Amino acid sequence: MSNSCKKAYITTPIYYVNDIAHIGHAYTTIIADTVARYSRMSGLDTFFLTGTDEHGQKIEESAKIRGKSAQEYADEISATFKNLWDDFGISYDKFIRTTDAEHIKGVQKAFGVMYDNGDIYKDVYKGHYCISCETFFPESQLVDGEFCPECGKPTTIVEEESYFFRLSAYEEKLLAWYDENPDCILPKSKRNEVIRFVEGGLDDLSITRTSFDWGVKLPENLGDPKHVMYVWLDALMNYITALGYGTDEANMDFWPARVHLIGKDILRFHAIYWPAFLMSLGLPMPKHIAAHGWWTRDGEKMSKSKGNVVNPREVADAYGLDNFRYFMLREVPFGGDGDFSQKALIDRINSDLGNDLGNLLNRLIGMSGKYFEGKVDSANVAKYYQAELDEVHASLDKLEPLLFDMQIHKYLEELWRPLTVANKAIDKYQPWTLMKEGKEEEAMALNGLIAAILGKVSVMLYPVMPEVCTKISEALSFTIDNASWNALFKERKNLDTFIIEKIPPLFPRIEEPLLEQAEPEDIKTEPKTKVAEPAKAKEEGIALIGIDQFFQTSLKVGTVVKAEEIPKSKKLLLLQVDIGEENPRQVVAGIKKWYSANEMLGTQVCVVANLKPAKLMGLKSEGMLLAAKDENGLCMIRPEKPKTPGTPIS
Ligand code: MSP
User: Fold this and answer.
1) pLDDT at 547 exceeding the cut of 70
2) 181: nearest Cα among 284, 42, 261, 255
3) 127 CA → ligand 1 middle, Å
4) In principle, which of 32, 248, 257, 359 could form an S-S bond with 286, CB 3.0–4.6 Å?
5) Residues 551, 494 share a domain
6) Mean pLDDT of the chain
């Protein structure tokens, strides 16, 4: 069967609309985009799905806090995801929303089919529910008998009538599926975790709720309008409703999925619940469920309260989208956790991209310009450089299985070997010496070899770095598509004769971090209720602290005795704040957008005095100023009357 008859269905998780996209979301989407681009280029009939997960109590509450209807709020945040993926050139074929009418119909149909199969029954559920994770937890798993083991927020006890899915009936069938399909869960180490979990026994799953409204209603014929579906049942079904399940089923021949890309935190839902639902629906199993690891920033877990969440748009704007894509996929072995730091990103750009790839193209442009007026002819490459070609093809031959096994970091590592072969060949054969010795044909063949290697590498790198590789292929006078993929990769051909186009360096060297570090004062806070009575706080999932914990923070009144701007920084001011100690404290504050240095000088502020010192733009910061920020801007929190510097705030 030719590749074009074969189908490849590739999915990302659908993202919750209670938050804006961060680097974790971008990571999943970029891996999926890479696999989809490769599939298309290699001639597979490809369908790439992404979208947003919009129902559930968490979303309903996030909307309420903002004074919006759930639908309004979901529309707004869903659009921010879609816009980001559009701006990132993500090549999705469909962007699904769980509020789409077709999706809702499809989920209702699926519910009906499972019900008719006898896999769904009605009972009463009593248990601890974490709204934030949209998950029930048995008492044995709770922290201190109350808090969610996943996110640490308080759980609520829910007792209500519920429909259940007979998950327990699928234990044996699931174990048989894992057993017969060793690579159904990637990386393989994760499969063992899932098997151990299932072997521990599965309880039936509560799949409807009556305590809130924002969800898919049950099929009408069940006559139970107070129930809405559990968000994970609703959400997982997106993988088939996007292909028309329950409505126009024309695209259902893309099923089963070649790969569901997910993060490791949602593996249980995808590797246990989802296959069990599919078994109940009588549909085939997905080929792979691939779970990637977690991203941290500078070694720390990202969170809004720490203000260290990496915004993918900012990184791509500052460093280039393709460079960011390359970094994410190259830096971390798939399945492992990764750390985002500007230093690591800069190192990858300067070294792998600048020195190895960009420089090779520059050398080729230089050599062909100097000796052959820009002409590159590959006719005699095999005559002089067969050994190099063999080495290059040996590496390229390893690539495809690595990609489809999600070993993308190894794919890129292997793809860099041909670049090393090329750079070494120039050093070894020295075109300038060949020219001096009158070996023009050999020198031209060397150019042809370098061009061929650059051509082959740019085709295979295209799924990861589409823009950059398009530029390289334009300089080398060819187009990246299924035909050139076949010629350069499958058939091991070289490039036709061409005149090279001079293009500016693709990876100018980066000397310093281009992004300012976010700092705590500069957090994009959610307009959450600031002061909440305990019951309300609990309901809203805000963790409560004891008074002792509050007093662990040392707050003091300070007077700004010196204030200056930090050259090159759009956000930061450098302040010296007298808090009654021998020397003033140096505080780097992200307030420049709202206050000039002059305005701050001589004023009083409230200082968090026992924060660990941090470095911002290379400057030590020994405290943090309290401020309030909403959509109208930021203002400092100050004592109402002048107070002696160092006066404690309680
Ligand atoms: N809505 C569910 C998925 C339903 S799929 C049927 C959900 N949404 S999510 O928005 O919370 O997360 C989506 C993806 O982002 C998950 O794969 C998750 O692993 C990933 N990430 C969220 N934070 C992350 C990091 N810090 N690092 C890496 N990926 C992480 O779960």
Assistant:
1) no
2) 284
3) 25
4) 257
5) no
6) 91
CATH of the domain at 617: 2.40.50.140
Q: Whose CA is nearest to atom 17 of ligand 1?
A: 263
DSSP element (H, E) containing 115: helix 101-116
CA of residue 25 to ligand 1 center, whole Å: 6
Q: Which ligand 1 atom sits nearest the alpha carbon of residue 293? A: 28
pLDDT tens across 125-142, in order? 888 988 888 888 888 888
Atom 15, ligand 1: residue with shortest CA distance: 25
Whether residue 577 lies inside any domain: the answer is yes
Query: 16 C-alpha vs ligand 1 centroid, how far in Å?
Result: 8
Q: Mean pLDDT check: name the lowest of 19-23, 248-252, 319-323, 503-507.
A: 19-23
Domain membership of residue 562 as a residue range:
546-636
Query: At 70, is the pLDDT very low, low, confident or very high (cuts 50, 70, 90)?
Result: very high
Identify whether the C-beta of residue 486 lies closer than 8 Å to the C-beta of residue 460.
no
Structural domain contains residue 624: yes
Of 17, 23, 28, 31, the residue with max ligand 1 atoms within 8 A of its CB, to mutate for a pocket test, comes to 28
Amino acid, single-letter form, for residue 326: Y
Q: What is the token pair recorded at 589?
A: 């504050």
359 pLDDT tier (thresholds 50, 70, 90): very high
Percent residues over pLDDT 90 in the chain: 76
Within this chain, do residues 372 and 266 fall inside the same structural domain, yes or no?
no
| DSSP states of 506-533 | SS----S--SPPP-GGG-------SS--
Which one of 25, 216, 237 would you pick to mutate in the ligand 1 pocket, going by the greatest count of ligand atoms within 8 A of its CB?
A: 25
Mean pLDDT in residue range 62-87: 96
Least confident of 51-55, 193-197, 509-513, 522-526: 522-526
Residue that is last in its domain, among 274, 292, 310: 292
pLDDT of 546? 55
Ligand 1 pocket by C-beta < 6 Å: which residues?
A: 13-16, 24-25, 27-28, 53, 235-236, 238, 262-263, 265-266, 294-295, 302
Q: Give pTM, 2 decimals.
A: 0.79
Taking CA atoms only, the protein residue closest to ligand 1 atom 25 is: 24
Classify residue 2: in a domain, yes or no.
Answer: no
Asked if residue 325 belongs to a domain, the reply is no
φ/ψ of residue 431, rounded to 5: -55, -35
Residues 580 and 557: their CA atoms lie apart, in Å, by 9
Q: How far is the CA of 107 from the centre of ligand 1 (A)?
A: 21
What is the token pair recorded at 327?
Answer: 């970094």
* 198 and 71 in a common domain: yes
Q: Output the domain CATH number for residue 270.
A: 3.40.50.620
Let me know whether 19 and 105 are in one domain: yes
Looking at the fold, whether 137 and 241 belong to one and the same domain comes out as yes
Q: Which residue lies with its CA nearest to atom 30 of ligand 1?
A: 24
Segment holding 538, helix H or strand E: helix 534-539
**Nearest ligand 1 atom to alpha carbon 261:** 17
Q: Considering only CA atoms, which residue is closest to atom 6 of ligand 1?
A: 236
**Alpha carbons 228 and 216: distance in angstroms, whole number:** 5
Total of domains in the chain: 3
Residues 552 and 484 in one domain: no
Dihedral sign, Cα of residue 211, residue 216, residue 217, residue 219? negative
